[in-house]
Design brief:
By secondary structure, the chain is α/β, with parallel strands linked by helices. Helices cover 29% and strands 29% of the residues. It folds into three domains: 3-99 and 333-353, NIF3 (NGG1p interacting factor 3)-like (Udp-n-acetylmuramoylalanyl-d-glutamate--2,6- Diaminopimelate Ligase, Chain: A, domain 1); 105-125 and 239-324, 3-Layer(aba) Sandwich (Udp-n-acetylmuramoylalanyl-d-glutamate--2,6- Diaminopimelate Ligase, Chain: A, domain 1); 131-231, Alpha-Beta Plaits, CATH 3.30.70.120. The protein has helices at 3-13, 47-56, 80-90, 100-104, 109-116, 144-154, 208-218, 252-262, 292-297, 310-314, 327-331, 334-345; strands spanning 26-29, 39-42, 60-63, 94-97, 120-129, 132-140, 167-175, 192-204, 226-231, 234-251, 269-270, 277-287, 302-306, 321-324, 351-353. It starts with a helix and ends in an 11-residue tail after the last strand.
Length: 364
């Protein structure tokens, strides 16, 4: 099995196009066509993680956080990131990052946290827009279903929990085959009229090439008429954060103690307890202060995240309880998420969780 087999699968689960503009997810170091000897999963890549991979014979490290985040201008070993890259290259170890694209998918990092807290009625807190496209095409009646099936199989026609979604109208198509054409219907230089279906489907924009290829391969016409347009609609399955409900309301202080225990953190920094009970919970793994307004707007009683700055705590303004559990602590179960995703698909590879503690923050 090649490294590319794993990374292609991960990018189907969490497409690279879903990462934030500042991010650097994907294969950062290594040969995608190299055969896999073993895979290590970690939250962060450090020199100790690479040493562990060398010891265990792993040649692919899958990390949540990208090792190369800012541009590298040299590889002299003067900085720890440079030393990691040099060591990985020297020992033929590939480094792959799956960061904000895994944050932004519905079954990703935030869903894992929500499951740990047993939330129900889960939905994306801040859905992304302009990542959906619409295809409009025209097909003879007798070929409509075969084209639809091909487009469905390519990933078109899914809206939330519904698939095979399309809109179809009846119409008449006209054309005149020119010299050198090979028409499916009609004759050269003769006007032709055909009863056709106008078919409209929505699809994730990153599947554009796959959708267009499926259309051409299934359509009977030599020249296929179609339109593509980008939609401003939000995609409810993709975006930042999650909001959901507790199974039953909890006293806020009790909930914070439950949160501390469940998320295995030594410290929960929180704003004044302005809510007597917690029913609705918003959360975002990592640094999520940018979602505070969204959490308040969603009617959440508590907003769980990490990396809140001092002045940002004031913005809660007694409208919500902010609970900062730490960046590492909020994302620590991402390793388990990745392990489950990969092991369910690939049962014949050496896959393990790194045992190196990569949290750079310690508490007294």
């Amino acid at each position: 099995m090649r490294i590319k087999d794993i990374t292609d699968f991960l990018e189907q689960f969490a497409p690279l196009s879903y990462q934030e503009s500042y991010d650097n997810s994907g294969l950062l170091v290594g040969d995608a066509n190299a055969e896999i000897s073993g895979i290590a999963i970690t939250l962060d890549v450090t020199e100790q993680v690479i040493d562990e991979a060398i010891h265990n014979g792993d040649n692919l490290i899958i990390a949540h956080h990208p090792l190369i985040f800012k541009g590298l201008k040299s590889l002299t070993g003067k900085h720890w990131v440079e030393r990691c890259v040099i060591k990985a290259l020297k020992h033929d170890i590939a480094l792959y990052a799956i960061h904000t694209n895994l944050d932004n998918v519905h079954l990703g990092v935030n869903r894992k946290i929500a499951e740990k807290l047993s939330l129900k009625n889960i939905r994306i807190l801040s859905p992304k827009s302009e990542i959906l496209s619409k295809l409009v095409t025209f097909v003879p009646h007798e070929n409509a279903q075969q084209v639809l099936d091909a487009l469905y199989n390519a990933g078109a026609g899914q809206i939330g929990q519904y698939d095979h979604c399309s809109f179809q109208t009846e119409g008449t198509g006209t054309f005149r085959p020119g010299e050198g054409s090979s028409p499916h219907i009609g004759n050269h230089h003769v006007d032709e009229t055909v009863s056709e279906k106008r078919i409209e489907l929505i699809f994730p924009s990153h599947l554009k090439h796959r959708i267009v290829s499926a259309l051409h391969n299934s359509h009977p016409y030599e020249e296929v008429a179609y339109y593509l347009s980008t939609l401003s609609n939000t995609n409810q399955e993709v975006g930042s954060g999650i909001v959901g409900d507790l199974t039953s309301p909890m006293d806020t202080s009790e909930f914070l103690r439950h949160l501390k225990q469940t998320m295995r953190t030594d410290c929960v920094r929180h704003t004044p307890i302005c809510k007597e009970k917690v029913s609705k919970v918003a959360l975002c793994g990592g640094a999520g202060s940018f979602l505070l307004t969204k959490a308040i707007g969603a009617g959440a009683d508590v907003f769980i995240t990490g990396d809140f700055k001092y002045h940002d705590f004031f913005e809660a303004d007694n409208r919500i309880v902010v609970a900062d559990i730490g960046h590492f602590e909020s994302e620590q179960f991402t390793k388990d998420l990745l392990y489950d995703i990969i092991s369910e698909k690939f049962t014949n590879i050496a896959l393990r969780l790194s045992e190196v503690q990569t949290n750079p923050i310690n508490y007294l």
